[in-house]
Amino acid sequence: MGQLVIEGEAIERLSLAKTIRHEGGFESVEPLVLQQPARSVSLPAGEFLFKGVVLKGGYVCGVEYHLSAAGVLLRGQERLKITAAEPCLLRIGAPLGPDLHAYRHGRMIVLEYQVLDAGGAATLRQDGSHRRR
Amino acid sequence: MTAYRGDQAVFKGPLECLFGGHYTYSWRVPLTILGGPLRFVASWDLGGLGPSESESATIQWQWYYHPPGFAGWMLIGVLLVLVKDNRSRQAWTILIPFLLLTEIVWPMARFLWPVLLGQQQDLLFQALVTAWTALWLVSPWLARCRPAAAIVLVLGLAATLGVVAQLGVYRRLDSGPFLPGYSALILALVLAFVLCGVSCRKTFRPGRFLAWLLLWLPLGVGLGIGCTFAWWNWHAAHSSWWDLHLLYFILSQFALWSLCIAGILYVVNLPFMYLAFRCPPYWDRFHRLLRLPTRPPPTTDD
To answer: What does each C-alpha distance from B222 to A33, B189, B205, B233 come to in angstroms?
Structure first.
């Protein structure tokens, strides 16, 4: 067993997937959902894929949610290595931080905005109210 | 999103979702703002999970950022005065489709589809309409040249305008997707017009020309995109994988893309065609340029 230490707050649900390696290099995954996880969670040693997280207030983050209309995957799946030797740190959840960048494009100023979670990953509202701000 | 000049809010606008969790907004700085720092702040209630206001992003705006945006206007003005055939009230009616497209249709389209029609598309549309207007204005000169020379001149002038537009924004020729897209569309329009001219050489009617344009424009767009990307990839042989990836993506959806883009070009070109069919000076230069059978020009009462 190993420890997953979650650095971040307001987590409603954390979705992981344990990777299982088979002979011949084939890899399968086993989903694992943690409801309102504590700051430190005991997990069997091995490799886990970070799938996504739901925060209080309906904010979501992760590959489960970050799909564009064209279905392009926008963020690679983070791999978490859980070992008995040392705890694995996962920065995720609140506090959220608005991130705004501006640059000039001819006579226009282009603004780019996103809400970042504690780990610096973009989050969005699950209910679709993020479409227009 | 709020824009501040000093402590005074000068603009408020909604950020639009570009894709999962990423928002954008393109703001055309009004002429009333000549210079100085512009500060932007985005606000959104994060439900107690974080601060609702972003840290401000600042742009030091300079007065000389405005003039390149008017290069097209200045060019049109110069051509209206410089070309002798344009020194008439009727020739100045070219301003109607130009203003209709750049100042009414395009801002409305950008208002309706702010994410789809971002700053890249804005630059492309403005440059394309300006180039097309400029070509109509120099068409009396072109009509006096041999066909091959006229085509070379058309492409040369359009390329010059494209380069000026590109440098006005990027200051480099090899950055951004504007130049390939612009070249493809100009090539498509010129090619489609040449082919329509050949198709209508024996029998010309406005409706017939427009019908041929429906056929040749998608073909022209297809060839324009193909030629431009082939050249672009050859030119940038050291280019990164995305050029080929993009080319593959475009080729894989070639027919659909060509049809969509050709449809947009067709609609954009319609005001100019209306002018060419209704206004005697443009009727005349349209016929002479494409070597169409001579017909009496429409009267202003038509």
So the answer is: 49, 11, 26, 16
